[in-house]
Amino acid sequence: MFSRMTTSTPARLRVRGKAAISKKVERSQAVLDAIRNLQERGELCDFEVRTGAEILPVHRFVLQISSEYFRTMLQTDMIEATQGYVEMKGMDEKSVVSCVRFLYTGEIDVEPDNIHNLLNAANLMQLEEVKSICCEYCISEMSVDNCIDILALFKQFLCEKAKEVINFISRNLSKVMHTTVFTEIEKEDLDSVILCNATSSNSTVLWIAVSRWINGDEASRSHHTASLFSLINEIGVACLIKLVITSRHVLSSQECKDLVARSLFEMTKEKRECVEAHLDISNYILLKQWTEIYRDIFDTKTLNDDVFSFMESNLIEISTCSDFVGLSIDDVLRLLKCVKAKRLTAQVRWQIIVVWCSGQRRPIDSYSTLFEQVDLSKLPISYIQTEVLPDRDVQSTNECKDIIIEAMCIRAKRNETHRQNTFHRSASVRRQRK
To answer: What is the C-alpha R_g of the chain?
Structure first.
């Protein structure tokens, strides 16, 4: 009924060229799409991710190849592996759903309102790709106003791009430090910002930033002043003279004062030449005090001379300030003996002495010593009678009175000589006319 089947050798395909070829077809996207379709239809799913009201059917193998979190969970004796589901408690429902769908699609939507929740979910599930996408989004949207918040976010979730945020803050510190959230930056992050930017050209900005940060919580941060100052390697003269030595944070810390003193008294010759240009009424007396405090430790003579040079040039102005009365009698004598002071009128020199003497109770011999620096004989007798003699300091010592009386006698004699000379000249003129 059936014919006998025979086996014959198939004919060999006669082609020119290679005898065989190897062809690879890209199937990864097709496989991914197929797996995604299975998940969407709930087919072949053997596990569930539960979050709030959502129950997501998933495949164990997809979770395990995508997440170390799920791999550990499903390959050990954890209760979730046996009960067939995991409950994502305390997590944002939408973010969990987005992360699970990412495992199947490779797509995720990131926006300002969900960035924190997404990072939280991705961090728990150990989805580094999602974390990276979120961080890239933050970097692209980073500004002066939000960089501190982004840095805190990156530090919280251990994002690798925190260094980029530090660099951004460092480059824009002059603006960032004036934002309302700047004082929320962590100490270690402020250290990093300073180290990225610690040059003399930026020292003023850095010190202002440090001061603003300390002021944000002075009670718990003031003890960091010394360590923060030490990070500013090349602090500029202007910053040192105008800002640092007058800072209450510096003045309240001996450690910080010692660091600042080293910067002051060991500065280069080029920097020392700029000191006087940055002295003013608000800082000269402080710098003078620094030179006195540290004269046994450092060579303070150069800076002390700079201070006196400033004081000599601005003697009238500084004599009207409250700090002037704190000078020693030797300081006042040095000022009155300088060339510029000698050009002042006797009345101005007298007023300077009166200001200093009235500041606080002085030794009796101070008055007579200072009065010798004023040629009282050049003062009008009326001025001596109304302003000099009634002064309580003059009245307190006979030596002062003797100086005043002697000056008045010299003045009277000079006036008489002048009167006689005028009379003789007038008589001579009259005789010549006759």
So the answer is: 43
Backbone angles phi, psi at 102, to 5 degrees: -60, -35
What is the per-residue pLDDT across 358-397, written as a single tens digit (0 to 9) for each? 777 666 567 777 877 877 677 776 777 777 767 766 666 6
Which positions ≥6 away from 183 have C-beta within 8 Å? Answer: 212, 213, 215, 216, 217
Count of beta carbons in the 10 Å neighbourhood of residue 158: 10
Contacts with 381 (C-beta within 8 Å, 6 or more apart), sequence order:
408, 411, 412, 415
Q: N- to C-terminal Cα distance for the chain?
A: 185
CA distance 228 to 203: 12
Contact 283, 241 (CB under 8 A): yes
**Phi-psi region at 113: left, alpha or beta (left = phi > 0; alpha = psi -120 to 50):** alpha
Nearest partner of 155 among 168, 166, 144, 167, judged by Cα: 166
68 in Cβ contact with 62 (< 8 Å): no
Please report which confidence band the pLDDT of residue 174 belongs to, taking 50, 70 and 90 as the band edges. Answer: very high
- Tokens 């299975």 locate to 38
How many other C-beta atoms are found inside a 10 Å radius of the C-beta of residue 391? 17
Nearest to 362 by CA among 391, 395, 311, 328: 328
* Alpha carbons 353 and 394: distance in angstroms, whole number: 11
d(CA 56, CA 39): 9
- Alpha carbons 332 and 341: distance in angstroms, whole number: 11
Alpha helices of 217-283 — where are they, by DSSP H?
218-221, 225-231, 237-239, 248-251, 254-265, 269-272
